[in-house]
Design goal:
- This protein is an alpha/beta fold.
- The protein is 36% helix and 22% strand.
- It has 9 helices and 9 strands.
- Helix 4 runs parallel beside helix 5.
- The longest helix is centred in the last third of the chain and has 16 residues, at 166-181.
- It binds adenosine-5'-diphosphate and magnesium ion.
- Magnesium ion (MG) binds next to helix 1.
- Keywords: ATP-binding, Ion transport, Nucleotide-binding, Transport, Zinc, Zinc transport.
- Residues 243-260 have a biased composition (Basic and acidic residues).
- Residues 5-232 form the ABC transporter domain.
Length: 260
């Protein structure tokens, strides 16, 4: 029933320029993993490849028996259009509808579940509010309510707490930890290293290539963090195509045994 999500030599490119390069390893079922790395390290690209929104240029993502509906995905805030004349209730129910593939109207049970989900994120009574009228923190709570409603086995969060107030961060982090307690697989791109060390047992540290992947205390050491920074500083944005026959820059530097 539960199998790992395996990345095998995964390379994802934009116009043949690699954003994720030769990444291998596995997310175990029920694991709680932080994805860390410098800006432009390929973290968002990696999430999009895991859910199948981007196709590998090389290598593969093996999702076992999982289908698109098993994945709940929270995009990075910058990728979400909020100037849309839509209510809070519709935002979360349309998300659930899209995922379930159900057609048309919402049942009374759907509306009830939506209300419960909003209450669970501290937004009871916000159903009819226009999403454009919400603060960043409130909007992020709405998106978490949508994830609650989706009830997915695998949950991917792209910088869920960036530009979010502390109180909201605490509340939403609690939900993340509850998902983990339920046995769901949770993968979150995070910038706050204290948060990663405090709450995330596994970390995948990436700078286009893998720097480390395994137990957080093993991966988030000063050497690896310096290495990730150094790799980012040496990126050549005009570097050539991803040519499989050529040994990529930093390959030896980056080589690490992925967690099993
Ligand atoms: P991160 O999330 O770690 O900041 P991204 O995955 O967003 O990194 O981006 C990795 C690299 O790919 C960056 O150099 C970025 O500029 C580039 N990139 C991301 N999205 C696109 C795109 N749609 N088209 C071209 N290049 C992109
Ligand atoms: Mg990103």
């Amino acid at each position: 029933m539960s199998v790992p999500i395996r990345l095998d030599n995964l390379t994802v490119t934009y116009e043949r320029h690699p954003a994720v390069h030769h990444v291998s390893g596995a997310f175990q079922p029920g694991s709680l993993t932080a994805i860390a790395g410098p800006n432009g390290a390929g973290k968002s690209t990696l999430l999009k490849a895991i859910i199948g929104e981007l196709r590998p240029a090389e290598g593969s993502v093996d999702r076992g028996e999982l289908t698109r509906n098993d994945f709940g995905y929270l995009p990075q805030a910058a990728d979400i259009v909020r100037h849309f004349p839509i209510s809070v209730a519709d935002t979360i129910m349309l998300g659930a509808w899209k995922n379930s593939g159900a057609f048309g109207r919402f049942s009374r049970a759907d509306a009830e579940r939506a209300r419960d989900a909003l209450a669970a994120v501290g937004l009871a009574g916000f159903e009819r509010r226009h999403i454009g009228s919400l603060s960043a923190g409130q909007f992020q709570r709405v998106l978490f309510a949508r994830l609650l409603l989706q009830d997915a086995r695998i949950i991917l969060l792209d910088e869920p707490f960036t530009a979010i107030d502390q109180r909201t961060t605490r509340d939403l982090l609690d939900i993340v930890l509850r998902w983990h307690g339920d046995g769901r697989t949770v993968i979150a791109v995070l910038h706050d290293f204290d948060q990663v060390r405090g709450h995330f047992p596994e970390t995948l540290l990436i700078a286009r290539e893998l720097v480390g992947w395994g137990r957080t205390e093993d991966v988030m050491n000063p050497d690896n963090l310096i290495k990730a920074r150094a790799m980012a500083e040496h990126w050549d944005e005009d570097a050539g195509d991803c040519a499989p026959e050529r040994e990529p820059a930093h390959r030896k530097l980056a080589k690490r045994e992925p967690a099993e």
